[in-house]
Amino acid sequence: MTTPAAIEIAGLTKSYGDHAVLEGVDLVVRAGTIHALLGSNGAGKTTVVRILSTLLRPDGGRAAVAGHDVVTAAAAVRESISLTGQFAAVDAILTGRENLVLIAQLRRVDDAGGVADALLARFDLTDVAGQRVATYSGGLRRRLDIAMSLIGDPPVLFLDEPTTGLDPQSRLEVWRTVRELAGHGTTVLLTTQYLDEAEQLADRIAVLHDGRIIADGTLAELKALLPPTTVEYVEKQPSLEEIFLAIVGHDGASPMETR
Amino acid sequence: MTTHVLHDTDVLLRRSLRHIVRSPDTIITTAVTPIAMLLLFVYVFGSSIDVGTDSYVNYLLPGILLITVASGVAYTAFRVFTDVSGGVFERLQSMPIARPAFLWGHVLTSLVANLTSLVLVVLVALAMGFRTGAGLLAWFEVLGIMLLFTLALTWLAVIPGLTATSVDGVSGFSYPLIFLPFISSAFVPTDGMPGPVRWFAEHQPVTPIVNTIRHLFAGQPVGSEGMLALAWCVGLLLVAYALAMRTYRRKIT
Ligand SMILES: Nc1ncnc2c1ncn2[C@@H]1O[C@H](COP(=O)(O)OP(=O)(O)OP(=O)(O)O)[C@@H](O)[C@H]1O
Ligand SMILES: [Mg+2]
């Protein structure tokens, strides 16, 4: 591949007290691709995303976004990114439209109101645009949250479990939006616990486990990690879940929720 | 860069002023407790308190103004905490906006909210018979002292707003602030207090600030106590600002 890297992570480490969460994470995300970061609860997905979005300082290693170091050039990184955190970060007292206008003003886009209205229409929020977000359901909040992240067309987008808590229809809508963005050249790093989401959406999938990336590749490449499919009465392609469980190991409870 | 700071602060100030307009109860609640104290002390205890002047409400108002601010900044802490715990803070921090804008937006909002509460309290006091011989200049001096005091307590309130882990932890910091005027010359003269209490009362910031405002309202010269009050306000402000900024810097890196 010749496309430049939008995200480069090398030897990244982070501990909370003596709890080592990241123990040398290496990952490269090519520009314009969708890269999924898979991992069980507590694997450190959010920690990676927070370091990349300059909210958290790594202990060691290097991370660069759009060519800028996240520690030494944090301001330049913030110019290039947008974050949709794991939990919807919306202002509950403002209306949906006011939330969008707020972000548009802070990002200094021309015609903040027009941008807000376009996003409201695109995310099917026009009917509730004038209501306070406090009255929104979880799914509505999440859609507004993602819409807020798209303002200003940042080239790199972090989505931390974007579809957790969404109904199937909203989920498909988010998937469509993400694909559309990638089609226009936006780089997307997406964490998820849903294997089908990674399978459906991602160009490449990285698995974060025990503080490291233990697998990284296309779905086909990950499938090749499994022993050849055994011939049975019914031949069955391994699902990503089986691949995941095989490379992570079956120790303990099922590390991941499937739907 | 400075235009950045001004623009972003302005946008965030408008946002949190909108919060206040949508929940005016925060301003009313802020004013209700001091007004209740005013009524209680003037109409219930006032007749048996001898402060050496004929009007107890005139004597009491300055201390009540400080209590108003002390309870008002609890909402500032609460608003900061809501942003931090609800994720809005992180969203803003991951965006290319001027770093000081988040705090300044809240601090300026706090000034507006507290001034509004103070006006309410003064209006009630006027209705209760508060009279002042203060000229325009004296009024401006009172306003200046109250602004400095509010600014100092606001920066102090920012700290629990940034660091608290629960809603209860946020508002807890303001209780000692509300209590401090009781051990000062705010309600009764310090002369009658027993030794150590009197010493504390005469050496803590509330007493000179209250006395200064009282003198200004009475149209009297403030003397050296005025300088002491100013020094306390500016000193508290600088310390609170430094601590708040240090907390903020730790939080954003
Ligand atoms: N501020 C913190 N202080 C102490 N420990 C933390 C802190 N933040 C996260 N951790 C711990 O670090 C580990 C990784 O957390 P992280 O949130 O990155 O995991 P995750 O992969 O996003 O999990 P989830 O799927 O539940 O969102 C967890 O064990 C968590 O308890
Ligand atoms: Mg997480």
Number of strands of chain A: 10
CATH class bucket of chain A = Alpha Beta
Give the strand content of chain A: 15-25%
User: What is the share of helical residues of chain A?
Assistant: 25-40%
Fill in the CATH topology of chain A: Rossmann fold
The total number of structural domains of chain B is 1
CATH architecture descriptor text of chain A: 3-Layer(aba) Sandwich
Into how many domains do the coordinates of chain A divide? 1
Unreliable spans of chain A are 252-259
Distance between the termini of chain A: 33 Å
User: How do the helices and strands follow one another from N- to C-terminus of chain B?
Assistant: HHHHHHHHHHH
What would you report as the Rg of chain B, rounded to the nearest angstrom? 19 Å
The greatest interface here is: A-B, 29 and 22 residues
Mean pLDDT of chain A: 87
How confident is the prediction overall: mean pLDDT of chain B?
90
Structural class of chain A: alpha/beta
Number of DSSP strand runs of chain B: 0
Oligomeric state, counting identical vs distinct chains:
heterodimer
GO molecular function (chain A): ATP binding; ATP hydrolysis activity
Pfam families (chain A): ABC_tran
GO cellular component, one term (chain A): plasma membrane
Domain ABC transporter (chain A): 7-235
What does this structure look like?
Chain A has helices spanning 45-52, 74-80, 96-106, 112-122, 138-150, 168-183, 195-201, 219-224, 240-248; strands at residues 5-16, 19-30, 34-38, 60-65, 68-69, 81-84, 156-160, 187-192, 204-209, 212-217. Chain A has a single domain, classed as P-loop containing nucleotide triphosphate hydrolases (Rossmann fold), CATH 3.40.50.300. Chain A starts with a strand and ends in an 11-residue tail after the last helix. Chain A is α/β, with parallel strands linked by helices and 259 residues long. A six-stranded mixed β-sheet of chain A has the order 6-7-8-3-9-10, sandwiched between helices. Chain A has a four-stranded antiparallel β-sheet with strand order 2-1-4-5, covered by helices on one side. In chain A, helix 6 (168-183) links the parallel strand 7 (156-160) and strand 8 (187-192). Chain B is mainly α and 253 residues long. Chain B has helices at 2-22, 25-45, 56-86, 88-93, 101-127, 136-163, 167-172, 174-179, 195-203, 206-218, 223-252. In chain B, helix 2 packs antiparallel against helix 3 (56-86), helix 6 runs parallel beside helix 11 and helix 10 packs across helix 11 (223-252). The mean pLDDT of chain B is 90. Chains A and B meet through helix 2, strand 6 and helix 3 of A and helix 1 and helix 4 of B. The structure holds adenosine-5'-triphosphate and magnesium ion. Adenosine-5'-triphosphate binds at residues 16, 21, 39, 41-47, 86, 193 of chain A.
